[in-house]
Design brief:
This protein is mainly α and about 100 residues long. It has 5 helices and no strands. The chain starts with a helix and ends with a helix.
Amino acid sequence: MQPLRQQQLTMPVIEVFLSIEEEILLNIAKILKQGKSLLEEDMERWQTEELGQLGKLTQQNIITIAKYAELSIETVTAMLEEAGYEAVTDSEMVQKWN
């Protein structure tokens, strides 16, 4: 396959990934912006508040991925959970061999 043709075929995929990346970064920025005044007042409380927002951020990012992948939120959630379990299993296997 010619390099130009290969690039033409991969551009739509790259554009989808870039759109997902941009929206996830915007989701992060929105969450961080909410506690800006608290950051100046009490750093430890800000950290606690932001950690409490992780579940909301995770859900927003799952919705973003589902939208661009044209899958249901439940399907994306199941896929991410499966990938997480596989990563833990792989990590445990590596630790056993070391």
